[in-house]
Design a protein that fits this description.
Number of strands of chain A: 20
Radius of gyration of chain B: 18 Å
Strand order of the largest sheet of chain A: 13-14-15-18-17-16-19-20
Radius of gyration of chain A: 34 Å
Helix content of chain B: 55-70%
Oligomer: heterodimer
Shape of chain A: flat
Number of strands of chain B: 1
Distance between the termini of chain A: 74 Å
Order of helices and strands of chain A: HHHHHEEEEEEEEEEEEEEEEEEEE
Number of helices of chain A: 5
Largest sheet of chain A: 8 strands, antiparallel
Structural class of chain B: mainly alpha
Chain lengths: 393, 184
C-alpha cells in the first residue's frame, strides 16, 4: 500500500484534487504506492472531463435573469409609488387640470356634507336593521384561455400554445407562476410525453388588462424524439392569484386543450369501411356501423339496442333510450396488435332502431394497417366488453 | 459598515447593486452549477434546464441570503433541492424549461460537437452510477461544483476528514472500472 495511513492518504489526495481543479501542478510524495497513483489517475480523468456551458445558453440565461430582475424592480417602484393613502388617491386622481379642480371641489363639498350631517342632530332615532358584514368577493377575476395557432399540424411543425390572461376584476392582481406548468399528454395512451416546468415569474396585472404568453412545442417528447401522429392534450396547470388591495387569494384551475398532429399525405389510411357487425353483452347489442379513416384520424359510428334475446336484461333505469342518456362510452383500440389506446365517445343523434354512439379523435393509422381492434368497454354504468375486429384492407 | 468576506454579499451590496452583484456571481458560479447538475443527471439538455431553474430561484430568493452565508454554498443547496425534486418525479416526466426548445440546439455547435458533449456526460454519469448516491453526491460536489471539503462537509452534515476519506475511497472503488471506461 505505501508508508501512509488511510487518513493521511485521504488528506493528501484531497489537496491534490484541489490543486488539479485549480489547474495547478500536482506532485507526488515519495512512498505513496501504486494504488494511490491509480486513484489519482482517476481523479485526473474526472478533472479533465469538465463540461463547459455553451455560450448561447449562458447568454440566453443571463438575458432572461436580467429581464426578470428589471421586471421585479419595476414592480417594486410601482408598489412604492402607489402604496399608502396617497398612493391609492393618486391612482384615482384625474390628470387634466380642469378635472383635478372639479374633483377637488367635489371632495371639499363631500367633506362639508359629512361635517354638516354630524353637527345637525337627527330628528328622531330611526330604527336600524342589523347590517351584514361586507363580504369580500373571492379573488377569482382571472380569465385564462389556452388556444393553439392551428386546428391541426403536420409532423415537425412548431405548435404555438397561446395563453391569454385577462384580469376581469377591479383591482390589481399578482399571478404566478408564469408560465404555469404544462403537460403534453398522448390522448390515446393518457401518457405524459413532454413536461414543461412552471416558470418563476410573478406578474402584476392591472384591472381590465389582458396579456398573452406563448409556449412553443416542437413536437418532440422528453427524449427529444418526434411524437407519432395523433391527438394530444395540452394540460395547462393552475395559477395562483392575489389581490393587491384586498389581499384575498385564490387559484385558477388548469384547463385542457386538444391538438392533432396529422399523418402526412399518403401515409395514413384514407377510406370508409362499412362494418355492420353486431356484438351482444350483458343485455345490450351494439352494432358497429362504419369506420371513417383519414389523415386526421378515425371516427367510429355504432348503435346500441337492447338485446331482447338475452337472458340478462340491463339494469333499470340505465337503459339508454336517447343519446342524452349515454354520457360516456369508453373504448380502447389498437392497430395490428399495437399497444391499446383509450378513447371516450358519446351518444349521438338517434339512428333507426337504437341509440347512436360516436367516437372521434382516434389517432390516424398507417396506410398499410391490416386490422383495427375496437373494444367498447362500457356505456356509462353498463359494462361490456363489446369486441370488434375490423379488417382494413 | 459590514465588509464583505470573499464570496459573501453585504446588505448594502445586495440592496443597492443587485443586478451587478448577481451578474458577477452568475459568471463565477454558472459553470460549476451546470457541471454539478450534469454529473448528477447525466443529460446535457436536462442539466441546462435545471441550471436555469436554479438561477431563477436564486434570483427570487436573493433577498433572503444571510450575511454569513457564502453565495456558492447557498446556490448549491438550491441546486441540490432542485435535483432532489427531479429524482422524485423522474419516473413520469422530464423537466424542461418553458423557453423555446430551439435554444438547446446551438446553431454554432456542429451536430458532432453536440453529440460528443452529450455522450461525454452520459458516460460520466454511467461511470458514477456504480457508487452509492451519497458517494455520487460528494464526487459531483467536488469535481462538478469544485467545492472544498469543508464546504461539502457543511452541506452534508459530515466532518471534513470524513469527506476526504469518502472521496478517496469512492475513486478507489471506481479505479477497477476505470481502464474499461477510459478505453471505451
Amino acid at each position: 500500500m505505501g508508508k501512509y495511513n488511510k487518513a493521511e492518504y485521504a488528506k493528501m489526495f484531497s489537496e491534490s484534487v484541489d490543486n488539479m481543479l485549480k489547474g495547478e501542478r500536482v506532485s507526488l510524495r515519495a512512498g505513496v504506492g501504486d494504488e494511490y497513483c491509480e486513484v489519482l489517475a482517476v481523479a485526473e480523468w474526472l478533472a479533465k472531463r469538465r463540461i463547459n456551458a455553451r455560450p448561447e445558453f449562458k447568454a440566453a440565461l443571463r438575458s432572461r435573469l436580467l429581464s426578470q430582475l428589471n421586471q421585479e424592480e419595476a414592480g417594486m417602484s410601482y408598489r412604492q409609488e402607489n402604496s399608502g393613502f396617497w398612493g391609492v388617491l393618486k391612482r384615482f386622481m384625474p390628470r387634466h387640470p380642469l378635472w383635478q379642480t372639479v374633483t377637488a371641489l367635489a371632495v371639499v363639498a363631500l367633506i362639508g356634507v359629512i361635517v354638516w350631517s354630524n353637527i345637525t342632530p337627527p330628528a328622531t332615532p330611526e330604527p336600524t336593521t342589523p347590517v351584514e358584514p361586507m363580504q369580500v368577493a373571492p379573488v377569482m377575476p382571472l380569465l385564462v384561455e389556452a388556444t393553439a395557432d392551428h386546428e391541426s399540424y403536420m409532423p415537425g411543425e412548431e405548435i404555438t400554445i397561446e395563453l391569454t390572461l385577462t384580469n376581469a376584476g377591479s383591482e390589481v392582481i399578482t399571478i404566478s407562476p408564469i408560465l404555469p406548468e404544462m403537460e403534453i399528454i398522448s390522448s390515446g395512451k393518457q401518457e405524459v410525453v413532454r413536461y414543461f416546468a412552471p416558470g418563476s415569474e410573478h406578474l402584476q396585472m392591472e384591472a381590465g388588462k389582458t396579456l398573452t404568453k406563448n409556449l412553443v412545442w416542437d413536437q418532440k417528447d422528453s427524449n427529444r424524439q418526434q411524437v407519432p401522429p395523433g391527438y394530444y392534450q395540452v394540460s395547462v396547470g393552475e395559477i395562483r392569484i392575489e389581490g393587491a388591495e384586498s389581499g384575498a387569494t385564490g387559484t385558477k384551475p388548469g384547463s385542457i386543450l386538444e391538438i392533432l398532429i396529422q399523418s402526412p399525405q399518403g401515409t395514413a389510411l384514407e377510406r370508409t369501411i362499412d362494418v355492420n357487425e353486431t356484438v351482444s353483452a350483458n343485455g345490450f347489442a351494439i352494432t358497429l356501423m362504419r369506420v371513417e379513416s383519414s389523415t386526421t384520424g378515425i371516427k367510429v359510428y355504432a348503435m346500441a339496442t337492447i338485446d331482447e334475446s338475452s337472458a340478462q336484461m340491463p339494469a333499470m333505469p340505465a337503459i339508454p333510450t336517447s343519446p342524452m342518456m349515454v354520457a360516456q362510452a369508453f373504448a380502447q383500440y389498437s392497430v395490428d396488435g399495437s399497444e391499446p389506446k383509450q378513447v371516450i365517445g358519446t351518444g349521438k343523434d338517434p339512428v333507426e332502431g337504437g341509440v347512436g354512439l360516436y367516437w372521434s379523435n382516434l389517432d390516424p393509422i398507417p396506410v398499410d394497417a391490416k386490422v383495427l381492434t375496437f373494444i367498447i368497454t362500457s356505456l356509462d354504468e353498463q359494462q361490456g366488453p363489446w369486441d370488434f375486429e375490423i379488417p382494413l384492407q | 459598515m459590514i465588509e464583505s468576506r470573499p464570496g459573501t454579499v453585504s446588505s448594502k451590496d445586495a440592496k443597492n447593486n443587485k443586478a451587478e452583484v448577481f451578474a458577477t456571481l452568475y459568471e463565477e458560479h454558472l459553470p460549476k452549477v451546470l457541471r454539478y447538475i450534469g454529473y448528477r443527471v447525466g443529460d446535457m439538455y436536462l442539466a441546462e434546464d435545471m441550471t436555469s431553474a436554479v438561477f431563477e430561484k436564486a434570483l427570487n430568493k436573493f433577498h433572503s441570503l444571510r450575511l454569513d452565508e457564502t453565495f456558492g454554498a447557498w446556490l448549491f443547496s438550491i441546486a441540490r433541492n432542485t435535483i432532489t425534486d427531479y429524482f422524485r418525479v423522474k419516473a413520469k416526466r422530464q423537466v424542461v424549461s418553458i423557453e423555446e426548445v430551439s435554444e438547446v440546439c446551438s446553431q454554432n455547435d456542429s451536430p458532432e460537437d453536440e453529440a460528443i458533449r452529450q455522450e461525454e456526460l452520459r458516460r460520466l454519469h454511467e461511470y458514477l452510477s456504480h457508487v452509492s448516491p451519497r458517494e455520487q453526491e460528494i464526487v459531483s460536489l467536488k469535481f462538478g461544483a469544485e467545492l472544498t471539503n469543508r464546504e461539502i462537509a457543511r452541506m452534508l452534515g459530515l466532518s471534513e476528514s470524513n469527506i476526504g476519506v469518502i472521496l478517496y475511497r469512492t475513486l478507489s472503488k471506481l479505479r477497477q472500472n476505470f481502464k474499461d471506461w477510459q478505453d471505451g
